[in-house]
Amino acid sequence: MPLNMLPALKTSLKGKTSNTTEKGYERARDILQAAREIFAAEGYGGLSMRRVAAHVGVSLSNVQHYFGSKDTLIEALLLDSMNQFQEKIDNIVASMAGKSRVEQFVATIDMFLEELGNPVTRGMFFEFWALATRNTFASALMEKMQARERKAIFRLIQGMSPRIADEDYVIRAALIVAQVEGLMLFRVRNRPKRPELEGLEKAAREAVLRLATQP
Predict the structure, then answer these.
(1) How far apart are CA 197 and CA 175, in angstroms?
(2) What is the pLDDT of residues 95-149, one digit of tens each?
(3) Total-model pTM
(4) Three-state secondary structure along 158-205?
(5) Residue 49 CB partners (closer than 8 Å, separation 6+)
(6) Residues ≥6 apart with Cβ < 8 Å to 128
């Protein structure tokens, strides 16, 4: 793994980045992935530093070397997930440089829908939402995550229509984030499929496209 790790991981290491080897970054990445899987499956109560250590096959002190507390690990997990989303957005924009902004936006929405359809990603965000309703630390993290999402979408759609003011695009970006995240409610595991909702994702794509382009 290259030494220019994602900012969330560097921030979580609390000053250890200057003497952390490439192998150390790999270990920190393994710890985050283990935490992601446990948190998505069992929530905050099921996540512990000791369980993460056992999952990775390292000592508890090794986990604590990179992430000093459970809350530090949770924060790193959320920020790392957001950085991965941003990296995917940047890659879409770069790879579609010759395409229209509308096409880039639609590709980005499709990416979000695909990622949020992943059981681990979906489970992780459900658990964050639930935790944020009763934990002030998690609530602050959730607000930070959603602020980043809104900003990323705003940058994608700003100016698509000259008849839409920037302050309106700020609101529209928030609505787009809410619609995309809300679709996860219809992807709950073991939920029966409803024939009347068969075209829900297609309708959602059309709705967010209207928000991005139509006055």
Answers:
(1) 20
(2) 999 999 999 999 999 999 888 888 888 888 888 888 899 889 889 988 988 899 9
(3) 0.81
(4) CCCCCCCCHHHHHHHHHHHHHHHHHHHHHHCCCCCCCHHHCCHHHHHH
(5) 60, 63, 64, 67, 69, 70, 73
(6) 78, 138, 141, 142, 145
Give CA separation, 147 vs 51, 103, 143, 166, in Å: 31, 24, 6, 16
Kindly state the helix (H) or strand (E) to which residue 91 belongs, with its residue range.
helix 70-95
Q: How far apart are CA 52 and CA 56, in angstroms?
A: 6
pLDDT number for residue 145:
87
Comparison of pLDDT for 4 and 55, the residue scoring more: 55
Closest by Cα among 201, 45, 39 to 123: 39
Q: What is the DSSP string of 11-70?
A: HHTTT-GGG--HHHHHHHHHHHHHHHHHHHHHHHHH--HHHHHHHHTS-HHHHHHH--SH
pLDDT digits (tens, 9 = 90+) for 53-66: 999 999 999 999 88
The number of angstroms, rounded, from the C-alpha of 124 to the middle of its chain's C-alpha atoms is: 9
Report in angstroms the alpha-carbon separations of 212 from 5, 113, 155, 195.
32, 17, 11, 28
